[in-house]
Amino acid sequence: MYIHHCPECGKQYSTQDQVSRVKCPYCGAETSVAYSEQPNQQQPPQFGYQQPNQASTGNIFDEGPSGKSRGLAGLLAILLGSLGVHYFYMGKNTGGIVFLLVSILSCGCLAPVTGIIALIQGIMFFTTSQQEFERKWVNCVSDIPLF
Fold first, then answer.
1. How many angstroms separate the CA atoms of 112 and 78, rounded?
2. Which contiguous run of DSSP H or E holds residue 90?
3. Collapsing DSSP states into helix, strand and coil, what is residue 81?
4. Is the pTM of this model over 0.70?
5. CB under 8 Å to 7, separation ≥6 — which residues?
6. Average pLDDT of span 34-49
7. How many angstroms separate the CA atoms of 64 and 134, rounded?
């Protein structure tokens, strides 16, 4: 039996035979096998910074590959969303400025509208995976990613 580590989701799985390509049963990523070992052999020590595994911990306040936490972004969206603070946190300064200017220049009349949009976004941050959060809101090309 051979143990494999998925580079996408970080989970561990095994195969009966030594193969050159494997498909992860958890995330479906297909990769070439670069390293596989017998289950009872000691793993070599790993040095340097190790990226926390988002899939196994399940903690929404852990930082993803971009250094942004979807839990913190969700809290900022729910609590200070009408001011666009969550956009500033995600590095989308244009979106943050738009939300801030709409709230200030409308003398607070449109703040409930931006607040409702931000509330929905905050709930979406909490309910999506870290990979989906990174793809839809942090790494997207749009300056104002709404939904």
1. 12
2. helix 85-90
3. helix
4. no
5. 29, 31
6. 51
7. 8
How much is the pLDDT for 37?
A: 47
Please determine, for residue 46, whether its predicted confidence score (pLDDT) is greater than 70. no
* Containing structural domain, residue 26: 1-38
With tokens 């500033």, the residue in question is 88
Burial of 50 (0-12, 13-18, 19+ CB in 10 A): exposed
Exposure of 108 in the CB half-sphere (CA atoms within 13 A): 0
Do 25 and 75 sit in the same domain of this protein? Answer: no
For residue 136, give the DSSP letter: I
Q: How many residues does the chain have?
A: 147
Give 58 or 136, the one with higher predicted confidence: 136
Q: Are residues 75 and 30 in the same domain?
A: no
CA dihedral (22, 27, 29, 34) positive or negative: negative
Q: How many CB atoms lie within 10 A of CB 102?
A: 17
Q: How many domains does the chain have?
A: 2
CA–centroid distance for 5 within its chain: 20
How far apart, in whole angstroms, are the C-alpha atoms of residue 103 and residue 70?
24
pLDDT digits (tens, 9 = 90+) for 52-67: 544 445 688 888 888 8
